[in-house]
Amino acid sequence: MTHPAPYPIGTPGRPWGAEEKAQWLSRQRRQRSYEEDVLQRIESLRAAFDVTEYGCLDYAPDRYPLYAVRNRDWRDGRPHVLVTGGVHGYETSGVHGALQFLEQRAEAYADRINLLVVPCVSPWAYERIHRWNAYALDPNRSFHANSPAPESAALLDLVAPYRDRFVLHIDLHETTDTDESEFRPALAARDGVAYEPGEIPDGFYLVGDSEDPQSAFQQAIIEAVAQVTHIAPADANGEIIGSPVAAPGVINYPLKKLGLCAGITDARYRTTTEVYPDSPNATPEQCNDAQVAAACAAIDFALEQGV
């Protein structure tokens, strides 16, 4: 029986303090450009959409403006729809899928919904291809009052005026091989607990809300995405990432209790997508297309219900 090597930072069994977090931060390197990959594409959307800066991350010496995109001519009586991407910066198709949705499909809904899209919630992590922010915090466990994660706090402030008006929120994510090779081992080391290896599902799946699963809504998305890429099967225990499969390609979490992004509104329809970009059976283009298909299917379903 083999045992995973200890994470290279910290002492096994002891949570990180300031010294260990500083050591971790010193290892992070910029690997891609938020300006080139994201902001330039957002800038090109100004001809068709309203683009607003809703906050700014100050991780000295770097500063990252945060942008939201909305369709013009918001009107009372139309359903409010929220699409978010890049809560975890390393999950590339979450960001590029949101941008592709804006570029290719969003205008078709402009006269039926009030659409708000935040393509990259965590730009510092996007550039470093990381799950955490610069404070070694996971923004997707930090969506709650007095959040210590500035990415999460800024998004909460943005949606606060419309929180009870949203009918739909779809949050675009990925599950990658690095979840097991880096991010879950780092989490265990940071928290001073033993790392228990898991299994990465091969394919697309959804995380719904265990408090209000909305099964028909989740299945409508799965059926649409299945036309683009394959759906993750359950493992030998009938689970995906340790949670029971509620329906093909669907598991459920208590979104609000866990401080997850998909729980930040009171929308009737809430879900988190999970694409698997490391699959030998999927390309980056398919992953982006799957995110777009999921967003469109979610909106179509909500509109068909007459919300």
Key features?
10 strands; alpha/beta; 307 residues; two-stranded antiparallel ribbon; Aminopeptidase; metallocarboxypeptidase activity; single chain
Largest sheet: 8 strands, mixed
Q: What is the assigned CATH homologous superfamily?
A: Zn peptidases
- Strand percentage lies at 15-25%
Q: Which CATH class applies here?
A: Alpha Beta
Explained architecture:
It comes from Oleiagrimonas citrea. This is M14 family metallocarboxypeptidase. One of its GO terms (molecular function) is hydrolase activity, acting on ester bonds. Belongs to the peptidase M14 family. The protein is built from eight helices and ten strands. The mean pLDDT is 96. Helix 3 (92-104) packs across helix 8 and helix 7 (215-225) packs antiparallel against helix 8. 31% of the residues lie in helices and 20% in strands. By secondary structure, the protein is an alpha/beta fold. The strands form two sheets. It has an eight-stranded mixed beta sheet, sandwiched between helices. The chain has a single domain (25-304), classed as Zn peptidases (Aminopeptidase, 3-Layer(aba) Sandwich), CATH 3.40.630.10.
Structure summarized in a few sentences:
By secondary structure, the protein is of the alpha/beta class. Helix content is 31%, strand content 20%.
